[in-house]
Amino acid sequence: MTPDVSVIVPVYNTMPYLRRCMESLVKQTIGLDRLEIVAVDDGSTDGSDRELARFAERYPGTVRVVRQPNSGGPASPCNNGLGLATGRFVFFVGADDYLGPEALERMVDAADRYGSEVVLGKTVGVNSRFIYQQVFARNEADISFAGSGLPWSLANIKLFSRDLIERHGIRYPEDMPIGSDFPFTLDACYRASRISVVADYDCYYAVRRLNAQNVTHLSNAADRLYCLRRLVDFTVGLMAPGKDRDAVLSRLFALEVAVVLRDDLLTVDRSVQEAVHACVRELADRHLTAETGAELEVETRLRIAVVQAGGVDDLLAVIRQDVEQGIAPIVVEGDRWYAAYPGFRTPGSALPDAVFEITAHAAGWAAKLDATQAVWRRGADGATVLAITARSPLPELAAHGQISVRAEDLTGSVQVTEASPATVVEAEFTVADVIAASALSGQRRSVRVHVHARGQEGSAPLRAAGLRLPRPLIWRRGLRVYAITPAKDPSGRLMLSVVPMTPGRILARLARRH
Length: 514
Prior knowledge:
Blueprint: E1 5-11, H1 17-26, E2 35-41, H2 48-58, E3 63-67, H3 75-84, E4 89-92, E5 98-99, H4 103-114, E6 118-126, E7 159-161, H5 162-167, H6 181-191, E8 195-207, H7 221-238, H8 243-260, H9 270-287, H10 298-309, H11 312-325, E9 330-333, E10 336-339, H12 353-356, H13 362-366, E11 370-378, E12 384-392, H14 397-400, E13 401-407, E14 410-411, E15 413-418, E16 423-430, H15 431-436, E17 443-453, E18 456-461, E19 473-477, E20 480-488, E21 494-500, H16 503-513
Parallel strand pairs: 1-2, 1-4, 2-3, 6-8
Antiparallel strand pairs: 4-7, 5-8, 6-7, 9-10, 11-12, 12-16, 13-14, 13-17, 15-16, 17-18, 17-21, 19-20, 20-21
Helix pairs in contact: 6-7, 7-8, 7-9
């Protein structure tokens, strides 16, 4: 009998996470008779092959294991698994992730009920892994790219009609060492007759490995820039001009292009800096419009403008200002606002004022603050709080509009403590509220500043490039123990991280103290 769904698991050195992944698959409520699991071991050396063999022996009619020489990426094992799949639908699972027990049953039911060729199941992060949630706001029978959040959720962890995949010959590009799931997923979603969303159940748990290394995004710059061009070219070649294509390109500029313009560009070789500059200028000159730049942060927007109008050193000077000295002063001339970065009316600079004009995004720019201090302390009511102090180069910021500081769905209490010569803002987040609002698996929230000014609503991530972070705070809620800590993303933006503490982690932590 043809199984309803083939789960494809590309595996490479994912022990001990692999065990939980496989257990979550064989325990799916859809039942073993409606399921096949195709695990493709991409040359693991950590015992993953033995673990897979154990599952194949225990579930001989369900689990199939294929071993291949290491290919260097997930594209080859995913394609190999597709070639072996026989189910009506296929679903890809990362070998260090796992599924909720009812995930496959709910997604297959949605596909059959709505006649969908692609179904997104709600995805949540584990160990403070960040997952975009916009597309999971509600159950949806049919969504498109524009206005749905789908362009921000184009990973391959979806239920796909195998007939759709085979009918159009959709496969992973094996010459892309980074991001090969994006063109596969985009191709399938673009050609699907209907895309549905299951948002009322946690289907997919995406795990952040606790031993993951914080490696610069430009450590493999040649591969990243090659793949960035490929992603843009693939999108333009696949999709007809219009709102859907603009939405996907907007996502690519806001995520993939923004990544290579992050602060760590200062730390790489000159040849890499020049290659990044050339790539960004080429893509922006060809494809950046008001529509495709709609999702850009104000900071990235200005850096791209500097790239288009200036040279490598102009770009580095702007980034260096943010990292070493803080956000540049704002020059207000009548109704016009300018960010006075190096190059703005600097003698010898060829950069026009228009590069630095932020009038159209004044509220977003007013929301750019530098965090200067983060401490644990007792609040006015005696509760433990994380107190964050931040500075704006704009004098009398509060006079321009309302200010709030949020960690996604949490809003901190805000006080403006100084207004001249710059504005100092203090925000407090009650630790108990942060823990209570976090999933049992942990959560990572981006801290953002929101400003209503000049008739605009603007927001920006709270910069923390020079911030000295406090030690994690261990907090008990009922029988569970969590570690909560401020953290920085690779571009120096402040995050609030909540990670559940297992007994093993607690013992390891105690051992390090002795």
